Amino acid sequence: MPACRIGKEKEQKRQNFIVRTIWTIAMIGGFTALLAAGHIWMIALVAAMQILTYKEVIALAYDKSVQRKLPYGKVLTWYMLASTVYLLYGESVIYFFQEVLLVDALLLPFVTHHRFISYVLYIIGFVMFVSSLEKGHYQYQFTQFAFTHVTLLLVVVQAHFVMNNIMSGMFWFFLPASLVIINDIFAYLCGITFGRTPLIKISPKKTVEGFVGAWISTVIFGMLLSYFLIKWQYMICPISDFSENAFSNLTCDPNPVFLKRSFNVPRFLVPLVYQTTYEIEPIHYHVIVMATFASLMAPFGGFFASGLKRTFNIKDFGDTIPGHGGITDRMDCQFLMGFFAYMYYTSFVAVHPVTIDSVLNNAVSSLSKDELFQLVSSMHRYLYNQGYTSSDASLCLGL
Question: For the residues 127-156, what does the mean pLDDT come to?
């Protein structure tokens, strides 16, 4: 019997390995296809991961027998998700495509009053929750309400910033996501090769040696990866049209971090390298910072997920991906890394020049109808005095 049982266990492990490998290849192929298909497909992928992760985490605290007795059931949970998505997605769309939205009379009220509309939607959900309180179930309902808000913060809000990374340029999405995967691979390889010292109690298999080895490896491979990515305009150009894809010959004026600059060699190294300056793209220094975060901080998203699973006594968050578990099991570090990439990009890399879009946004949102006509009239007068237009243009404008 023991021999038979051991044989069955080996066969089960072999089957699990085969299934896991097949699905890994399928996910890599699917991700590559969506990456080449364009920004809108990657945004759709992140949105799907966001919703599925939210569903898996929220399900942990559900008690089906109690839920059936309560008004609204799961409706309120999904309503809160919808209102949050409306707020966050609306903010992104308005920021990146305001020049289109601000000239559409039908969409203009939703743009100028977007945050107020979002607040009203939330208040409706709040009133629904209070109205649904049932005696004898207060603790369960308030626990659900708090659990929903924490999940919205840790999953939906962070995923929103991942989408902003895609719009800022595929590089700011693909590289951080790749750094997490690279770190995970080398943490495993270094751990089984050199691992001796336990790192954290919540994840007994993690070792200090694997943690440090993965950090060094992630920095090296991250810089190599960025060296090739910055040569592809599709990766570094911000989104300007949802129809663009990897074969659209996308071009733009690159962010200065992607262009070579001259740096001074530290004095103590000059005798060794025999030169006082060197040229390199500044992005590589930023990659070192992101690789360090992916190695030293992002794994704590995984540790957090491990603690959550232990709290509810489960092995995986679900079985959405055969051989891999749930979506949350694969995304536990990605949302944290994506949020950091967004904060780092906007703080140290993004440039904010005055554009037609920003001027139009300020004009439409701040000026009255009469003031807008006065602005157009003044602009026409200036263009006419400069010889750029004829006086008849004012008749066409009705001025």
Answer: 91
Contact between 306 and 299 under an 8 Å Cβ cutoff? The reply is no
CB atoms within 10 A of CB 294: 32
- Where exactly are the structural domains of the chain? 38-168, 169-298+333-352, 367-399
CA 283, distance to chain mean position in Å, is 19
Tens-place pLDDT, residues 264-295: 988 888 888 888 898 999 999 999 999 999 99
Residue 242 pLDDT grade (very low, low, confident, very high; cuts 50, 70, 90): confident
Q: Average of pLDDT values for 185-204?
A: 89
Closest by CA to 165, choosing from 335, 288, 49, is 335
Q: At 11, phi and psi to the nearest 5? A: -65, -40
Phi-psi group of 63: left, alpha or beta (phi > 0 → left; psi -120 to 50 → alpha; rest → beta): beta
pTM comes to: 0.83
Evaluated on CA atoms 18, 21, 23, 26, the torsion sign reads negative
- The Cα-based distances of 358 to 88, 99, 106, 157 in angstroms read 19, 8, 20, 25
